[in-house]
User: Fold Anti-sigma factor antagonist from Couchioplanes caeruleus subsp. caeruleus.
Amino acid sequence: MHVSVIGNPDDTVVVTVRGNLDLDTAPVLRTTLHQVLDRPLPRIVIDLSGVEFCDSTGLSAFVIGHRRAAAVGGWLRLAAPGGWLDGLLRTVGLVPALAVYPSVAEALADEPDASGL
Assistant:
């Protein structure tokens, strides 16, 4: 798995995840999220377009990140999950609790209160 972080001029952050997100690799994502969630008002989009597989440890990282961001008035949004991952997020009930967008651009453009936070 590969994780990269891009900060934007408006202080939003895009975390891009590629590969399998599972028990062996989820700690990399959790560590990355921990670092970007330390911002005063975290606004994070996780680009899932390159995720091929995700297990419960990956899902847990999304939920923990969402809760931490919301606790300080920020947000965490998921963007561009493939069909399988989108179905998984919906099946386990994470949607609509977590905001999921078809693309990174749409996740970044949405108004803060429109994501349910």
